[in-house]
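Propose amino acids for all 418 sites.
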């Protein structure tokens, strides 16, 4: 068997090596997901550290949400891997390239018009990917997310809400007040060049919470999702009654007032400041710049290797291109298939680095005197986003760019470290 493999042409060795590595990665990922799925299935009680601050109902909701996502991820991942394998085995890439050539030829563009053919190829590949991925996307959004109360969409505007709406989100300046003054004061204390603070209506698309900053040089801006702010989140107002309404008058004789449908969401002002202290820690400690430098170095290395490999005919032959060597196809083969072992290793290293950065940013907020506020904010955000606080160590080590909640809480309450 080994002799037969060694006797194969170089292009066949490349092809089968790509397939074997792809399935090896899939099996590894499936094994990790299985380990985490066991955690979701068997951890039915609130951890001791969270016993006084996380109720059983929220914990159970989080557990079921993550269990549903994990089960969905197994089937969607299996389908994706099987689809990719069939495309390679059946020659789907050279077939689509040939179809692209036929279409461009009908408009008078021959084989020498490689750019035109490449554009048609990209359009057809994107269309195919969108059509095959749409059922999975719809199920994720309108079954899983809807079931657990995160989806705020209607079906006809899914694409608009996910990809176009963020470009036109309504950014409202944070009104003058205590929160704005505190944010400006905190930014000034660490020389963060803050120019504006916005609140964005993220609740129109999802009830997940977030905050970030952007801008170049001396022109930085902070953006807060309305779902992050306890006083702004529309979800906190969804069950409130307007004074003087008939419904309120009818209930006037009852001893108890109607309760909102949803529990209160978002963070208090001190907790928001602690979250921003964490985010500003990333800036102060140079994490953003370091990530940019790593990204640029990686891009330089990848394109250097691409220049070295693009002329290797056996790479094209391995994927069914015996007579032509289109540049676009070369990009796909090299970056998607040949670089896949390197990409997996790089992804793991960046995950480890990201977790280190997160611990450092937490420590930065702690050194600003906001340890207890960040502690409670992390728990609230975890509850609002239905994050599960318990993780399998191997799964989290490989996948989590942010440390699991319990690890972060323990670091915040442990001895201070430089």
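Proposal:
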């Amino acid at each position: 068997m080994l002799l037969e493999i060694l006797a194969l042409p170089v292009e066949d060795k490349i092809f089968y090596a790509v397939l074997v590595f792809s399935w090896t990665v899939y099996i590894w990922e499936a094994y990790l997901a299985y380990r985490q799925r066991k955690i979701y299935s068997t951890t039915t009680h609130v951890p001791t550290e969270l016993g006084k601050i996380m109720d059983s109902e929220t914990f159970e909701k989080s557990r079921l949400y993550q269990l549903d996502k994990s089960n969905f991820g197994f089937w969607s991942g299996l389908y994706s891997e099987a689809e990719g394998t069939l495309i390679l085995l059946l020659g789907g890439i050279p077939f689509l390239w040939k179809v692209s050539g036929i279409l461009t030829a009908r408009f008078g563009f021959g084989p020498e018009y490689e750019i035109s053919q490449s554009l048609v190829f990209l359009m057809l590949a994107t269309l195919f990917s969108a059509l095959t991925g749409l059922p999975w996307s719809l199920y994720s959004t309108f079954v899983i997310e809807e079931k657990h109360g995160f989806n705020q969409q209607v079906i006809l505007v899914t694409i608009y809400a996910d990809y176009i709406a963020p470009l036109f989100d309504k950014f409202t300046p944070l009104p003058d007040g205590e929160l704005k003054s505190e944010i400006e004061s905190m930014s000034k204390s660490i020389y963060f060049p803050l120019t504006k603070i916005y609140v964005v209506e993220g609740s129109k698309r999802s009830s997940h919470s977030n905050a970030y900053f952007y801008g170049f040089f001396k022109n930085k801006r902070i953006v807060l999702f309305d779902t992050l702010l306890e006083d702004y989140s529309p979800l906190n107002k969804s069950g409130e009654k307007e004074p003087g309404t008939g419904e309120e008058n009818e209930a006037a004789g009852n001893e108890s007032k109607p309760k909102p449908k949803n529990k209160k969401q978002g963070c208090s002002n001190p907790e928001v400041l602690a979250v921003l202290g964490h985010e500003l820690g990333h800036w102060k400690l140079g994490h953003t710049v370091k990530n940019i430098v790593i990204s640029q170095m990686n891009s330089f290395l990848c394109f250097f290797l691409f220049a070295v490999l693009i002329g290797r005919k056996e790479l094209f032959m391995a994927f069914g291109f015996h007579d032509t060597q289109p540049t676009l196809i070369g990009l796909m083969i090299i970056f998607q298939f040949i670089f896949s072992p390197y990409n997996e290793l790089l992804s793991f290293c960046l995950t480890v680095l990201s977790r280190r950065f997160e611990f450092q940013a937490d420590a930065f907020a702690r050194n600003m005197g906001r340890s207890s506020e960040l502690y409670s904010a992390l728990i609230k955000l975890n509850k609002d986003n239905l994050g599960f606080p318990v993780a399998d160590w191997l799964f989290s080590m490989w996948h989590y760019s942010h440390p699991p909640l319990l690890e972060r809480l323990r670091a915040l309450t442990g001895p201070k470290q430089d």
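The two ends are 56 Å apart (CA to CA). Residues 56-89 form the longest helix (34 residues).
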